[in-house]
Amino acid sequence: MNKIDKKDKGKKIDRIDQTLKNPKTHTLIKEAHKLKDWMTEIRRDFHKNPEFGMEEFRTMGKIVEYLEALGIEYTSGVANTGVVAIIRGGKEGKTVGLRADMDALPIQDEKDVPYKSTVAGKMHACGHDAHMTILLGAAKLLKDKKDQLKGNVKLFFQPAEETVGGARPMIEAGCMENPKVEVMFGLHVSSEIPTGEIGLKYGQMNASSDTIKIILHGKSSHGAYPHKGVDAIMMAGQALTALQSVVSRNVDPRNSAVITLGTIKGGSQGNIIADKVEMVGTVRTLDPTTRSLVIQRVEKVVNLVAEAMGGKGELIREEGYAALINTDSIVDIVKLNSEELFGAESINIIKEPSLGVEDFAYFAQAAPSAFFRLGCRNEEKGIVHDAHYCLFDIDEECLVLGAALQAKNVLSLLGEED
């Protein structure tokens, strides 16, 4: 993420305050700002009542309440706790999707705020409470303009982004069909970017992930007679060394890949040749071709090293999230809309992809998409902590800006607002 000078941060926070008072401020921002108290109340309720992935039953119920109050049709219980809603426009046209994730993290909330989590060991430490709130705010703005829309808006409240991934089962349940979603937008709040700024990444944005378990089978014997056994620990040492060559010698250096083995377990006694060693790790890659290549090479190295030493190798792969690859033309839409709403100086172009994962990737595979970062940092308010940390918080002004931008993204494709 681009570094922001502290002096610039202060100026940009002041600019947001000035923007809201400026008579030339975009209509959507003014309309969204009228919803600020409503959205703040919603966000704080979600924050006080976090739920883990696939357990978001209260959260689902509250979303349904808000949608009913707004007069928006919906289907709940999609992929267990997900909600899919639709705003049907006054005219025929394409369908645009907006997504928000719902789940919390197993973190104790240590903030001293009135909206601190009331559930021990659970916390919205990644901003999903804000994402749901922003989507509801955008829904309110778009519902009020539904007669102007040339097409439809689908709203996806997705469970379990932090755990098993709710995007894929929602898509498998048909959420992108009837009517078919042709363009998708998603966002994530970022404490690395000041409120009022947007982070945009063209092309590859987040890595794919795979959990790998390597099992090396040998033959046990007394340590005094090693020739009678097949040493699985020796195999593990050779395999660890050989696996380092997969990234350095098999992957195009212009691409990226990571192989990390975080645990190793084997042996029972210091004087006994180990007959089995297990290693568990993660593989991260940025495109499907490299992903397939790395997994194939890891499996071959494991098998051949073990075979060469008289044993047997086994690779168990648990496929994780796909790589998130943005569609450049859709990112351009977000860029143009951000410039119109917040000014050209609001744009941060992210140069390097993240090797972290994000299951919006499955929506991006299903339709041309843009996933972007929404600044929520405010040093004057002490809102500076990273996500997945016990003191994480957001500048709630970002709720207004996020709702306005997501509504603008839809309107720029389905029709112009008054």
UniProtKB/TrEMBL annotation:
Residue spans crossing the bilayer: none
Pfam families according to UniProt: M20_dimer, Peptidase_M20
Residues in Peptidase M20 dimerisation domain copies: 210-304
UniProt-listed PANTHER family: METALLOPEPTIDASE, PUTATIVE (AFU_ORTHOLOGUE AFUA_6G09600)-RELATED, PEPTIDASE M20 FAMILY MEMBER
NCBIfam families, per database record: amidohydrolases (TIGR01891)
Protein name as annotated: Amidohydrolase
Species assigned in the record: Alkaliphilus hydrothermalis
